[in-house]
Amino acid sequence: MYAITIPEPGGPEALVWDEVPDPVPGEGEVLVEVVASAVNRADLMQRQGFYDPPPGASRYPGLECAGRVVETGPGVSGWAVGDEVCALLAGGGYAEKVVVPAGQLLPVPAGLDLKRAAALPEVVCTVWSNVFMVSHLRPGETLLVHGGSSGIGTMAIQLAKAVGAKVAVTAGTKEKLDFCAELGADILINYRDQDFVEEIERATDGTGADVILDNMGAKYLDRNVRALAVNGRLAIIGLQGGTKGELNIGALLAKRGAVTATSLRARPLGEKAAIVAAVREHVWPLIDSGHVRPVVDRELPMSEAAEAHRVLEESGHIGKVLLVTP
After folding, report:
1. CA distance 88 to 127
2. Burial, 88: exposed, middle or buried (Cβ in 10 Å; 0-12, 13-18, 19+)?
3. How many helices (H) and strands (E) does the chain have?
């Protein structure tokens, strides 16, 4: 098969479409013929040499995919050759085939194109696990989503609105904010010329955000704490603004707040399977019914993964960028 390899860390040009050995499914695994994968910020970090796959995972980038089951390993039940699936991966999505633990497979939602299903697993599992399983967003509460027009952001808006929450977003252009509004966002903040702490305070009559989904890390840490409501929950899922920040514990105590930081990739298989099962139970019906949908900016041939990485680095996209196999 062919896959995107990274012979040496570097810029987008470090990604090489090369012939490699076919993977073989082991106990509890299935082999999926990949139709499409999706690009995530973590892939850019891996390409740069900053985010290695966990032990035992594929060395090729790609944290989610969609395709068809072509082989099942020993001990697999509930899946058969020919099933159309999408999958949460620890790596290997930028390839023509990938091995997946059976507990990380999801059926393609009703009425959804197989390729577009590749835009779902990583974002839905990230949003559901952080906003709902960890931060317990409830109807009537306010969720602040940084990077509202990203793949994560566009999904977070839709799921929060589906449960009856109010949604605030930050983004850097009017076009992106307008798109967030179309998805249901109530409070639109241009981070280039507005202070999100002030805007949240104004929009909530001084109450603050009950849950904040943050992709920035250190750069926003102090302001995120200030933007929290009493009993607020800050969920950090990205480090685009750095890894080390100063936390005002006094301010956090005054808010009786909580700060969590999670990632999906390195979690044990059992934890990933539990998240995937919760997503299938709670989110898949919303996608099946059309109330929630993946947002796809563009599709590119998988052999042009370097161009897809440039698109993400330039941050002009809205939603997900897909890589499609030949």
Report:
1. 13
2. buried
3. 10, 15
CA 292 vs CA 175, 205, 232: distances in Å:
21, 29, 26
pLDDT tens digits in sequence order for the chain, 326 residues long: 999 999 999 999 999 999 999 999 999 999 999 999 999 999 999 999 999 999 999 999 999 999 999 999 999 999 999 999 999 999 999 999 999 999 999 999 999 999 999 999 999 999 999 999 999 999 999 999 999 999 999 999 999 999 999 999 999 999 999 999 999 999 999 999 999 999 999 999 999 999 999 999 999 999 999 999 999 999 999 999 998 999 999 999 999 999 999 999 999 999 999 999 999 999 999 999 999 999 999 999 999 999 999 999 999 999 999 999 99
3-state secondary structure of 100: strand
The answer to whether the beta carbons of residues 37 and 322 sit under 8 Å apart is yes
Token duo for residue 78: 């509930």
DSSP alpha helices (H): ranges in the chain?
Answer: 41-47, 121-127, 151-162, 174-183, 196-203, 221-227, 249-255, 269-282, 284-288, 305-314
**Distance, CA of 51 to CA of 61 (rounded, Å):** 10
Contact 38, 150 (CB under 8 A): no
Q: What is the pTM of this model?
A: 0.96
144 in Cβ contact with 212 (< 8 Å): yes
The DSSP-derived string for 12-51 is GGG-EEEE-PPP---TTEEEEEEEEEE--HHHHHHHTTS-
Beta-bridged to residue 32, according to DSSP, are 69, 98
